[in-house]
Amino acid sequence: MDPSMMTPEMLAFAQQQMANMSPEQMAQMQQMAASMGDGMQMPPGAAEQMRNMKPEDMARVSEEMKNMSPDQLKSQMNTNMNHHKAQADYALRGAEKLKTDGNKLVGEGKYKEAIEKYMRVKNNLAEDASAAAKTLRTSCMLNMSLCFNKSGRFASAISECTEVLKGDGRSLKAYYRRGQAHAAKRDFPAAVRDLRRAVKLSPGDETVKGELVKAVEDMKAEGDNGEGGVDDGECPDFEGGSDAGAGLAGAVAGAGAAGGGMGGYD
């Protein structure tokens, strides 16, 4: 195995396996890792690469590490971090191009083809924990939910929105589009719950408010009055964790993104 292909995770794992390393060598490696701070974050794909290492590769890595000086180890780790950062940047640029292509297809009404582009972004960035990758991935998942709704694939739209909400419990578009999908499936109580959340996030959006009014009317027509009316109904709690949006202002600010607000794509 080429030493230049060792990732920081491989180095850390090999460190644990090398029982024959002296205490001095172990301490030097730990100090070096601590001094690198945030640079020790696992690069995209490193975990999978680590899992797929053969025993002979690990033995070779261990031998190479044992014969390196602390300076050589640090240099090697820096080299690997730069290598993987370049790979991540390349993947991110490719994902941005896929999203642009997907948006063009949505504008042409080619929803199936657009979904394929967005799904590739979602999968390609699955292991990239950077803020830029998370934002791009979330945007494409929301765009997919729009395409799924347009294509009558409402269960898939619900699935994408639910996944978004696990990370951002104040995503206006996720509640709105999931509410639309629930309404299309005639699950009006679920639609009303989501649309109430959307209205709370963007109280001045007449499009969102109109969808809620219609869902409430349809729910009552089905003989279910448990959710109350538009004015007296309670808004359910938002989903997601503590990092699920830093207040309503941020959610509302994103409501009018390129493509026409709630009905458009990012």
Automatic annotation (TrEMBL):
Q: Which UniProt keywords apply?
A: Repeat, TPR repeat
Mapped TPR repeat ranges: 172-205
Lineage top rank: taxon: Eukaryota
**PANTHER family from the UniProt entry:** OUTER ENVELOPE PROTEIN 61-LIKE (PTHR48433)
Name of this protein: Uncharacterized protein
